[in-house]
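LAB NOTEBOOK - FOLDING QUEUE
OPERATOR: T.R.
BATCH SIZE: 2
PURPOSE: Compare the predicted structure-token outputs for two unrelated chains run back to back under identical settings.
PRIORITY: normal
REVIEWER: second-year student, initials M.K.

ITEM 1
FIELD SEQUENCE / FIELD STRUCTURE:
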Amino acid sequence: MNLFNSICFFWILSEILLNRLLRSGNSDKKSSDKNSLLLIWVTILISVTVGVFISKLIALPILSNVGLEFIGLAIIILGIIFRLVAVKQLGKFFTVDVTIRENHQLLQTGLYKVLRHPSYTGSLLSFLGFGLSLNNWLSLAIVFLPTLFAMIHRINIEEKVLTEQFGKQYLDYIAKTKRLIPFVY
């Protein structure tokens, strides 16, 4: 197994572990997810599969050298680290399904001081890196864009739930932070 495959395996394994271990508990407010987690996973599976298939079928190189695979790999690793730091900072309030934990508090420090959804930023960085590593414009678009749209849909659901829970406090937080890209969006 080469380095690229090893990193991708670690990336997928970490996402599966987060998905299995960090679900909401019995005392949490549930039913807020609106199947957005399922939508994200289906989107990822289809996008990655089709993106890889297209990269083998149609030659639309982003760059003519093979160095892009390593740049993509570095971005995947950066995304994994960024996501894991965001999950660690959110601590017990992080769940893979949209829910409000018992005694839930709004975190506004660390990565969350600048971004409202840094764990999604980390995931999206990894998908961007994976798309780049395929060195194919069409594959990059197929891997990244549907995943981005599925996550934005999920973010809209989350922000509605958080606004209902925290009211003005969350609206003030929205006013001073960006969703996914510091100082931009």
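ITEM 2
FIELD SEQUENCE / FIELD STRUCTURE:
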Amino acid sequence: MSIKTLVISDIHGCYDEFNFLLHKTKYTPENDKLILLGDYIDRGQKSKQVVEQVINLQNEWGIVALKGNHDDMFVAAINNDSEELDAQWLNNGGFQTVES
């Protein structure tokens, strides 16, 4: 049994590809350390599923999940009444996040 540290960034709503990567690397949460560097949302079609999975992995296995610039843009857009912020986020893949 090999114990690994996996560092992954820029998932961008690509739920199936993220899970394929975890499978391909034989990630086992009981033994391996998983560090996610953010950008869970935008562009891909399954941002909601990615976020739910990250939350579950963090709650169940204590993975490290950092916030990326796309995640930060999303939070800024929903917490601020600025149309400029909304447009910036939507133009950077936010439409796909809203759809999911």
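REVIEWER COMMENT (ITEM 2): The CA atoms of residues 45 and 97 lie 7 Å apart.
FOLLOW-UP: none requested
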